[in-house]
Design goal:
homodimer; alpha+beta; Creatine Amidinohydrolase, Chain A, domain 1; 2 domains; 6-stranded mixed beta sheet; 5-stranded antiparallel beta sheet; 12 helices; 17 strands; 33% helix
């Protein structure tokens, strides 16, 4: 009522997003139901905002219940008006979570096993939901959700391409921002508004407690080799122990590599790529590091496609690093060495698949992952390339087509 | 070893933070122990990164155990080197969480009740900790943590002042960025790098699942009146249902208020203030709204000090709005009206105290809160002022001394 006839016009004026089609939402729920059936879950309870968005098209405050058999029940508390505008699903308005119990009871659902997002749902919120929804038995729904979200639809790939489209203007502007003596923070500050102007959603999401990230991380030397809690090959120093990652006040030096890791964000979908810059001639051994990263990228692009095992993707990359005797610097050094060379991307930056030596999974068409061969020289710096790939029947397809060569400025 | 002799020099070169003194950390833990004793908790288990930082001075990956009697046990997994550099506490290096069990057993702790951060700890992480640490009985440690963090030390107030110091250059630059026809996103993009250049930590934190925020929110008209899931008086439209808050592509119109809500961030500490701008003469009823917000601010600054009840602070503000017949627009409208006019700030933006009509709590010296009288005209726009206050024995003291008048551009 608040927006009267102007609703749609307003939404168009303020935003830049593509609404998720209803058939797509239903298909996603069907996918989830298939996995729920295998896990013995009778109804899924979706509470986290990202999962809610994935299945409903809105992130307003509410609870989505997906019964194995029957229609989804989307209970919405606030804003009901906005939820109705954004989601094509039927909405059951509620004032309090407690009202959900009666509906679930009337559908006979409470006799079954509830599936909840145990990987993100805090204990107190879980206890409250159990009380308010009235279920007795529960299981973890998170593996089902993560698996159904792993394979992207054509609609999602369009969103990812738009997200990736923000990178070209940012990396292009970086050619001017990276200068001898400029600090990492200076470079980030010069670039960070550009993506936003191109419709960047504002922040990025990583699933799980203590999982945080900045939109951009610039490393200009030894900061690229500093180890921190984050499970990433190049984390950065940051400027405070309160957020010990990302750009710092370290300044660019001639011949020392500068890595810029940037995440696009469009309509919820995150892309994640890295480029390496240098003022003047890249010093050794970084030159060798970069060539090896290039070789790994080219090998993956020639070999990887649907049907390839994730562990094979990792093993090939590792062998190339080993052949160049660079395995000690590959994906970090010492305490900072990480086990993966790739990670799924989508609404969160740590989706499936993960590309490691031990996570066995066969790639299938529509999986999308960031692939990031990086090399770290302790106390000195790091280089790397990170590209986002879509798995196709016969190849890897890039999300964007931007150059990933070393940029000499 | 990685940093050899250069460690301290490097940390100085890259960062801009003040390390937390050891005595301060011990005092914080003593405060927590006092509250644990009252709650019947025998040992606190700190896992969330913000709480870890508060009690240890670092956010590296680990678990802090605080026994009611005896020394803290700080188990650190990664990065041990960085943790040692940042925290003055003794560090017990571990390879796996499981190693903690034996130590706790040897101290006899496992016979007691463990306190955990149940408001943020996901069910799966809780179950893993229970297995790896070996406790049988547990209770919620979150209320104790939130209470001890509520009163800020002189060291913390210094951090908050540095955080607040980032606002002046941002709001000053906004005088130029706010122009007729500029979009909210344009304005944000022009301003967002400025705080970062002044040492902004990069992002802000809000405690709890689904609690997210942007660094800045610009609203230029009816977007300031759009209701969303977020429990804030002026949330903004955002540009996607995936993140339905913050700045949008709505453009500035003559006479219509533009609110800019910005969060500073220094060494973990968050400040949160709002200013109202207008191109030309502010249209009615926004003029009246703004005057009423000013009156509420002035009344609070004259009346509020240590010993005042939070509910009184709210009631006085409400009465002023009521006297001006503006209670229907006060702190939002309809579905969007929120129950608070103030919230504690610190390492997270939703700390204690909360200033509402029903949360009874007497203000004491050292509490710090954002106070935000705001008025919303549905379908049209919003105005407001938000200032950060430190509670003193005899007055409220501002965190910054910047002007909060209406800015006409």
């Amino acid at each position: 009522m608040q927006w009267k006839g102007k609703k749609e016009q307003m939404m168009e004026e303020v935003g830049a997003f593509d609404p998720v089609p209803k058939e797509e939402l239903l298909k996603r729920m069907d996918g989830l139901k298939g996995l729920m059936a295998k896990s013995g879950i009778d109804f899924g309870v979706i509470f986290q905002n990202v999962d809610e968005f994935y299945f409903t098209g809105t992130t307003q405050k509410g609870v989505l219940v997906i019964p194995l058999h029957g229609e989804p029940l989307f209970f919405l508390e606030k804003s009901i008006e906005r939820g109705r505008l954004e989601s094509p699903l039927d909405i059951i308005p509620i004032k309090k979570e407690k009202e959900i119990k009666e509906v679930l009871q009337s559908k006979g659902l409470l006799r079954g096993i509830a599936g909840l997002e145990l990987d993100v749902l805090p204990v107190a919120a879980f206890e409250r939901l159990r009380r308010n929804l009235g279920f007795d038995r529960h299981a973890d729904l998170a593996p089902c959700i993560r698996e159904v979200r792993m394979v992207k639809s054509p609609f999602e790939i369009t969103q990812l391409r738009k997200s990736g489209g923000m990178m070209a203007p940012v990396f292009e502007a970086a050619r001017h921002a990276v200068r001898e003596g400029a600090s990492e923070i200076d470079i980030e500050a010069a670039l960070i508004g550009i993506g936003r102007r191109h419709g960047h959603q504002g922040f990025l999401r990583m699933r799980g407690i203590n999982q945080e990230m900045t939109l951009m991380a610039v490393q200009a030397g030894y900061t690229g080799a500093m180890v921190t809690y984050a499970d990433v090959p190049i984390a950065g120093a940051g400027i405070t122990p309160a957020i010990p990652q990302g750009s710092s006040f370290k300044c660019v030096e001639r011949g020392i590599p500068v890595t810029i890791d940037y995440g696009g964000g469009y309509n919820g979908y995150i892309t994640d790529e890295t480029r390496t810059f240098v003022v003047g001639k890249l010093a050794e051994p970084f030159q060798r590091f970069f060539q090896c990263a290039l070789e790994i990228i080219e090998d993956a692009m020639a070999y990887v496609k649907e049907g390839v095992e994730c562990t094979d993707v990792f093993a090939r990359a590792y062998r190339i690093a080993e052949k160049a005797s660079l395995q000690d610097y590959f994906m970090g050094h010492g305490e900072g060495q990480v086990s993966f060379i790739g990670h799924g991307i989508g609404l969160e930056i740590n989706e499936l698949p993960v590309i490691t030596a031990r996570h066995r999974r066969v790639l299938t068409e529509g999986m999308v992952f960031a692939f990031e061969p990086k090399f770290v020289l302790p106390g000195q710096g790091a280089v790397g390339i990170e590209l986002d790939f879509i798995v196709r029947k016969d190849k890897l397809e890039r999300v964007t087509n931007d150059s990933f060569e070393l940029v000499t400025v």
